[in-house]
Amino acid sequence: MPRLRLQVRGVVQGVGFRPFVYRLAHRFSLTGWVRNRPEGVEIEIQGETGRISAFRAALENERPAAAHLISIETELLSDGQERSFSILDSALGSEVRPSVPPDLAVCLECEREIADPGDRRYRYPFTNCTHCGPRYSLIAGLPYDRSRTGMAGFPLCEKCRREYEDPLNRRFHAEPVACPECGPHLRLVIDGRVGSEGDTALREAAHLLDHGRILALQGLGGFQLLVDATSEAAVQRLRQRKHREEKPFAVMFRDLGEIRSVCEISPKEAELLTSPAAPILLLQRKAGELVPSVAPENPRLGVLLPYTPLHRLLLDQVQHPLVCTSGNISEEPMAITETEALEQLGSIADAFLVHDRPILRPVDDSVVRMDSDGPTLFRRARGYAPLAHPVKWEGPPILALGSHQKSTVTLVKEGEAVVSQHLGDLQSLAGVRLLERTVEDLLAFLGATPGLLACDAHPDYASTRLAERLAARFDLPLLRVQHHHAHVGAVMAEHGLEGPVLGLAWDGSGWGSDGTVWGGEALVVEGSQFQRLGHLRTFALPGGDRAVKDPRRCAAGLLWEVQGSLDGISDCLELQERYLVERALERGLQAPRTSSIGRLFDAVSALLGLRLEAGFEGQAAMALEFQAQESCDLGAYPFELKDGVADFSPMLEALLQDRRRGLPVGDMARRYHQGLAELVVAWARMAGHSQVVLCGGCFQNRLLTSLCRQRLETEGFQVVRATKFPSNDGGISLGQAWVALVSAKLKSLGNY
Ligand code: ZN
Ligand code: ZN
Ligand code: FE
C-alpha cells in the first residue's frame, strides 16, 4: 500500500490542526501518524490510493478556519508498520521556530453549546475549543502550553481533562479550555463593590445597558465601554464622559441580519465579519437607521459581531445593538486589569463586568474596510497580530521601533517579520511604557536577540529615544529611516519588492531629511536608498501643531503662500484669530513649512466650508472624501509640476473661482481628488518606473486610491498598496525593518 509524507507549513499549531488530521485519517481508514515540528506539522499516511488523494484534498478544503497553510510538500515512502493512526509527541528540533496564533473569534460549535440548556457549558462565557478562543492575549510564553497561559491558575476538572486528552475531541489540547466547574467566573462591580456573580452578574449588566447605563466590560484583549446604540441620550452621555465629541463609534450587532438592516453588506464583507479574525468592518450605511451620535456626519459605520461567548450572551440578553469602544481615556492604552479599569474608567462607566481570567497584553479590536482591490487595514490587532509575514532573511534579528502615532514594533527573524499589535499613540507616559513592554515581550516571546535596530529619523519621537537607549545598552548599530521612506518600505515588505519603485507617501507629517515637515512625497526607492523625486510645494502652517486640529489655519497658510494675503478666507476665520494668524505668517514665526498633502486636504476642506475645526485627525479630509463620493467626473483641478515640485496655485485659483460661481461643494471636492490623481500620473511618468506604490494615511481615502489606480493603470503602470498592514503609521515599523534588512543584505554583499 502506498505511503505518503506531508510537510505542512503555515499557522498550524494552536488551531486544532492535529486532531483535524487525526479525524480525517480515521474517516478515510488510513494508518500512520501526525506530529508538530518546529516549522509546522508532519504527517505520514498509508492506505489505498483513492483514499489518500481524498485525504489530501480534504486536508486543504476542510482545514480549521484559523489555520493558514503556506505550503504542503509531499514525498512517497516505503511501507510502515502501524495498524492505526496516532498523534505523536512533538518532534524537538535543535532550533524551534515558535508560531503564536492570534486570538480567534468564538466558533459555531461553541456558540451552539452555550445556547443549549442540556449542555454543561450552557451560558458559560469562557467556553472555547481548539478552533476558537483567546491565544495571543492569553499566552505568557512558548512553547504554547496551559502552564504558560493566563489559565495556569485554573486546574482542569475531570470532565475537561477527558476532553483535553481525547484526540477525537474538539478540545484535544485546547490550552485555554474551561467549564463552569473549573474555569473563570464573572463579577459585576458597582461603586467599587462586587454586586453579583456568574450568570446573575451578566443578566444584571444587560439590565443596566437596557436602561442606558455605560458598562465597562473586561473583554478578550482589554476593557471595552458598551452602551445602548439605539439610545441617543445614552450615546451622548458616553461621548461627554469619554471626552470624545465626534469620532465615530463602532457598533456590535447580534447577527448579520441585524447589520443588513442598517448597512450595505457584500458576501466578501459578510465572510470577513464571521471569520476567526472578526474585525470591526467599515460598511456603507443605509439612511436613517441609527441614532445620529453613533457616527455623526459619516456615511460609513464600523460594525462587528460578538466574537467571544461573553459578548454573544450579552448581546442575546439585551436584544439591541451596542456601541463598543476601547476602554481607555483619550489617547492612552486600553486598561487590561480590573485595577487599571477602575482607576481609568471610574468616571465613565456606571458598572464593571469583570472576570478572573487575566489578560496578559492589550489587544484592541482590528479595524478593516473591504475595497474592490482588497482589504484596507486601519488598525491591525486582534485576529491579525502576531501572524508572521514571510520575508527572505537569514541574518541576525532586526528590531524596528516604529512611529509616534498608531505605534507598532516589528521584529524580523529568520524568514519572518512579526509586527506587533497596534499600541496607540506615544504622547502619554503609559503609551511609552506599553511600547517598552511590547519590545521586551516580543523579544522574549520569539527568543530573539536583535543584531540591528531601526527607528524614525525624528529626534523627538519616544520610539526614537527608546531605540537610542537600546542601541547604547546592547551596543548595537541603529539605522534611522526617514518617515516616508519607511511608508514605502512597508508596502515593499508586504509585496517583497526591492525596487526601483516610485513611492507616493502622503500623510499628515513626518520628519524630512532637510529638517522641514514632509508629507506629500514622491520618492524613488531602490535597495536601501531613496531619492526625493518631488514633493508638494511647501506652505506655512501658522501655529504649527495647532493647525492639525484647525483646518482654517491650513487654509490660511495655503492662501498666504499663493497670494500673500488671506483674501478669500473671510467666512471661516474670526477677526481676532485672523489678525494673529496673519502676524504669524508675515513674520514667519511659529509657522513651520510643510509639503504635507494631509494638511492640503484640511485646507481645502476648510475653504469649502466643510470642516472649520477637526474633532480628530483626518476628520476634515474624510468630510472632503465623503462629499466627493457623491459627485461625478467634472474634470480635474490642475496642479503644475516644475522640477518635480507640485504647485497647488492653479488648483487653488480654479477652486476659488468655482466657489465664487457657487458650484456644489461635492463637485469641487471631486475635482480636487481628480487633480491629485493626475498629479500622481505626472510623477509616475517623470519617474518612469513601472511599479507605483501608494502609501501613507492619505491613501486610506478610498476615492483617492481608486482614482489614482484607474489613471495609473490606464497609463500602463502597476499599482501596489498595503492590504495586510495599515497604510498609516501602523506600518512604519515594518517599513523601517525592511529598509534595515535590505541595507544589511547589501552590506554583506559588499555593495553598500
Ligand atoms: Zn470553539
Ligand atoms: Zn472543567
Ligand atoms: Fe506617516
Note down, in words, how this protein is organized.
The protein is α/β, with parallel strands linked by helices and 752 residues long. 33% of the residues lie in helices and 21% in strands. It has 21 helices and 31 strands. An 11-stranded mixed beta sheet has the order 7-6-14-8-9-13-10-12-11-15-16, with helices on both faces. A 7-stranded mixed beta sheet has the order 28-29-25-24-23-30-31, sandwiched between helices. Bound molecules: zinc ion (2 copies) and fe (iii) ion (FE). Residues 107, 109-110, 128-129, 131-132 line the site of one zinc ion.
Roughly what percent helix? 25-40%
| Ligands bound, unique | zinc ion, fe (iii) ion
The secondary structure category is alpha/beta
Order of strands across the biggest sheet?
A: 7-6-14-8-9-13-10-12-11-15-16
Count of helical regions = 21
Strand content: 15-25%
Low-confidence stretches: none
Round the Cα radius of gyration to an integer and report it.
27 Å
**Gap between N and C termini, in Å?**
56 Å
The count of DSSP E runs of length 2 or more, i.e. the number of strands, is 31
> Which sheet architecture does the biggest sheet show?
11 strands, mixed
What kind of oligomer do you see? single chain
Principal-axis shape equals: globular
| Mean pLDDT level | 93
